[in-house]
Design goal:
The protein is an all-alpha fold. It has one helix spanning 2-78.
Length: 79
């Protein structure tokens, strides 16, 4: 009789422990998914910012080239 009570209480503790560990596992899984999504979003942002930066650099070089040509125009008109 005492052995049955001990076995039943032990199985209750084990069941409670397993459910607690299971819920912790679900939390860890959710946190992992959030971290993976955050990394993916940061990689996409980095790629888009890099692309925008290259575009801005090309626009800047085009503007400088046009300004140099515009600076030469008054010199050629004065002659």
């Amino acid at each position: 009789m005492a052995e049955e009570v001990l076995v039943n209480s032990t199985s209750d503790v084990i069941t409670e422990l397993i459910s607690t560990v299971g819920s912790i596992g679900l939390w860890l899984q959710a946190i992992g998914i959030v971290i993976i999504l955050w990394v993916i979003i940061n990689i996409v942002n980095w790629y888009l910012n890099r692309k925008k930066g290259k575009l801005l650099e090309s626009i800047k070089s085009d503007i400088q080239r046009i300004e140099k040509k515009l600076d030469k125009i008054p010199k050629s008109i004065k002659k």
